[in-house]
Amino acid sequence: xDEDKLLEQAKAVLKLNDRxxxxxxxxxxxxxxxxxxxxxxxxxxRHLDIERAQAELQSLLRGQWSNGMLPxxxxxxxxxxxxxxxxxxxxxxxxxPTKVATSGLTQPPMLAEAITAIGEKMxxxxxxxxYRQMYPALLHYHQWLYGERDPHKEGLIILLHPYESGxxxxxxxISELRKHSMPWWVRLVEQLRLDGVVNLVRxxxxxxPPGQRTSNIEAMAYWAALRRLRHKAYNSEAIxxxxxxxxxxxxxxxxxxxxxxxxxxxxxxIGRRLPQELASAMGCSEAxxxxxxxxxxxxYYSRSFISHKLIEEPTIATLLPLYAGTISKEKAAxxxxxxxxxxxxxxxxxxxxxxxxxxxxxxxxxxxxPTWINTNWLIIKGLENYGYHDKxxxxxxxxxxxxxxxxxxxxxxxxxxxxxxxxxxxxTAALSIDLLKGS
Length: 439
Ligand code: GLC
Description:
By secondary structure, this protein is mainly alpha-helical. The protein is about 50% helix and about 5% strand. The chain has a 3-stranded antiparallel beta sheet. Strand 4 and strand 5 form a beta hairpin. Helix 3 (about 50-60) packs antiparallel against helix 5 (about 110-120). The model has no long low-confidence stretch (mean pLDDT about 95). It binds alpha-D-glucopyranose. Alpha-D-glucopyranose binds near residues 34 and 166.
């Protein structure tokens, strides 16, 4: 593998997608700023240009709502994007910012990791001043998560739409959607097989083969769910009083547990104390994660907030408790074992986004099979947390070979490495840089 060449290619992708102080995930398909994408981008950019990496995160804060929520999308200006902004209508909420249009939902809380990663590249005085700058917004965000999205004070954050998980069409969400959130008219369209019409209004399938994306039926049901949230002006309480579609998402909560510990360390570095209420809410999350463990299957799952039942659909999230870093060594060993099993996650090009044995598995279908570089990056960190340094190094090497051989795409077949989704994808480029630099 030619590492220098890969580094140059990755830098070129970030340049192509650079919009001044923020980066689009992929020019044509995703022309706005996304929350966790920008966090991953900043993690790569810190090796090239610290100030530009800082700007990437600061521009995310343009979109922060006055209640602390960080939206998953900050929309680009310009007439050509009017339709995207109108789909969400963030202005319906009294908390949304007035200067930019945003979505009304959040995404996995990677911000603490990105701020810290940049901080690691600085000497202590600069690091302190960087943390001081970002701390209030980060704190407010975590307060919003616990204040608004943990209504029963269980320590697990609930998500109200699959977009918030970042793993849009992941099996637990699809199974919940089919059980609780299929409007009659979507079922009718499905029965009459009229869903092809939806291609006329879908932007993604204009750029990417439909077999690599969410199905039309799922896309319609997602759109209907989004309209319901919009109708309630994105007010969680109002939404929850009517919805059957709320999930304690495993991946999100694992990322949060890690983010909480980073927030705590950041507070220490700058000599602040976390507000008592938040500190005790955060304290519950580690133990609450254990409620997502299924003793029979020996794995973690997401859970329905409504029925309080585990949603028994294994996915890449199954491995993310390693990244959370708070599970026992025995459970970590069990997850590592799943990575070496052909029925589960062992692949020519690991790690598939759902296990091979899942009925959902499809090597090129978005979050239902392909390998993604961001989840590999999280798993590499997780393996390191538990001292599996060789396995982490192997996965790092495999991830880099995958992109060096196939291009910096959005995702790849775990079977033969075929690139899929958008080409020139920002987080693939940024995290390749981070993996090359040995983070
Ligand atoms: C898709 C992905 C999400 C990502 C976004 C922009 O919606 O599922 O994780 O943030 O695209 O890249």
